[in-house]
Amino acid sequence: MWQPSIFIFLILLIVSINQLPLARARGQWCVVSPSATDAQMQANIDWLCGHGHVDCIPIKPGGPCFEPDNLRSHVSFVMNQYYQYNGKTEKACYFSNTGIFVFKDPSYGHCEYDY
């Protein structure tokens, strides 16, 4: 049988490994593809915000995700919201082939992307 000191060491090792960032569950986010055109990005925003599919207040003036004030930043935020709240499926990030998955949190400043 194991000595108590080895058993305690193994327990502490397991606990400490779970505290490492690499050992934690990683998120997945849906953002707009770098190849998406302005027209495609605007169509995504129009569909998502114009039909109430997501909360677009964070990308409006004064919202935490308004800055930087550009189409790419705004559409990525709302596309991810839709993806996160619609089953996190590949289909929920398709957006006529303009959505891509990233595995690094795109949050910045006070603009926090859900995951």
UniProtKB/TrEMBL annotation:
Q: What is its main location?
A: membrane
Q: How does it sit in the membrane?
A: Lipid-anchor; GPI-anchor
Record's subcellular location: Cell membrane
Q: Which domain of life is it from?
A: Eukaryota
Could you name the Gene Ontology cellular component terms for this entry? plasma membrane; plasmodesma; side of membrane
Asked whether the keyword Glycoprotein is assigned, the reply is yes
- Which range is the signal sequence, renumbered to this chain? 1-25
Q: Which residues form the X8 domain?
A: 28-113
| A Pfam family this chain is assigned to | X8
Query: What keywords sit in the KW lines?
Result: Disulfide bond, Glycoprotein, GPI-anchor, Lipoprotein, Membrane, Signal
InterPro entries attached to this UniProt entry? X8 (IPR012946), X8_dom_prot (IPR044788)
Please give the name of this protein: X8 domain-containing protein
Q: Give the lineage.
A: Eukaryota, Viridiplantae, Streptophyta, Embryophyta, Tracheophyta
